[in-house]
Specification:
- Helices cover 30% and strands 36% of the residues.
- It is α/β, with parallel strands linked by helices.
- It has two domains: 179 residues, Rossmann fold, CATH 3.40.50; 60 residues, Protein Transport Mog1p, Chain A.
- A seven-stranded mixed β-sheet has the order 3-2-1-4-5-11-10, sandwiched between helices. The protein has a four-stranded antiparallel β-sheet with strand order 6-7-8-9, with helices on one face.
- The two termini are 24 Å apart.
Length: 254
């Protein structure tokens, strides 16, 4: 298991490259409806990044805690939380040691942003899901998002670009570009920052490898840990379809 963040040293830029308002507008209603349906009053978020989801969730969930492997991300998260006067406790941890630091059990565990794809195989996946089960109360809920890699792999080897984000401030344009390089079961992910000035362009790149977990991998790893397991294909509660769904969202009941 990789215990270093792919985005190490890139936290502030990652925060800028994501349109958080747009993401929360898409993902927020799904989470609110799901957690309200299951009467979630306490939640632990893994790989929380700069904390925007945890802060949003704290507006209707009583006890929210969140962890990340990247200290710079947590620094941003604590700053945003303070500005919003949100009662979220952020702590430094990875997917191996978070149960020891979580300080209790929860009604729900959440991990978004395709973070589980940074695990290095089925054994890692099973081990981390076991850790998730450990921090959940009886009947607790696990919600884990992955890209639908079966759709990506089905299109064959190649490069898949995500829409770039451009920010212009004081005559300086910053372009953020994210793309995937698709092979077999390993997929490269690359975050590129381009600084565009009159005198030229400079760039900074952060790269990592993802494991292309499929439906059968997720369901097999969750078997025996969670008694009910279902997959959604997007944040509209549509059912997961291998060949067409853009996302793969596991909702599992302990």
């Amino acid at each position: 298991m990789n215990r270093r963040s792919v985005l190490e040293g890139f936290a502030l830029d990652y925060d800028r490259m994501v349109d958080w308002r747009k993401r929360l507008a898409i993902e927020g209603p799904f989470l609110r409806k799901l957690f309200s349906k299951h009467a979630v009053r306490s939640l632990l978020e893994g790989a929380c990044g700069p904390g925007h989801h945890a802060i949003y969730l704290s507006s209707f969930i009583e006890r929210v805690r969140a962890f990340d492997i990247d200290g710079e991300m947590l620094q941003l998260a604590r700053g945003y939380s303070s500005q919003a006067k949100a009662k979220v406790r952020f702590f430094l941890a990875d997917f191996l040691n978070f149960p020891r630091k979580a300080n209790g059990v929860f009604d729900a565990f959440l991990c978004l942003g395709n973070s589980f794809a940074h695990l290095q195989g089925r054994k890692d996946l099973r081990r981390v899901l076991a850790n998730v089960a450990r921090v959940l109360k009886p009947e607790g809920l696990a919600v884990i998002h992955l890209i639908n890699f079966e759709l990506m792999l089905g299109e064959g080897p190649g490069v898949r670009f995500v829409s770039p984000r451009l920010i212009t401030e004081k005559g300086l344009t910053t372009a953020y570009v994210k793309f995937f390089v698709v092979n077999d079961r390993r997929i490269g992910v690359h975050f590129v920052k381009l600084l565009i000035r009159r005198e030229g362009i400079s760039q900074e790149t952060h790269s990592g490898e993802l494991t292309a977990f499929k439906k059968d991998d997720i369901l097999a790893a969750a078997k025996g840990l969670f008694r009910r397991r279902e997959l959604f294909g997007d944040y509209d509660f549509s059912r997961y379809v291998r060949k067409t769904s853009p996302q793969m969202i596991l909702v599992a009941r302990k």
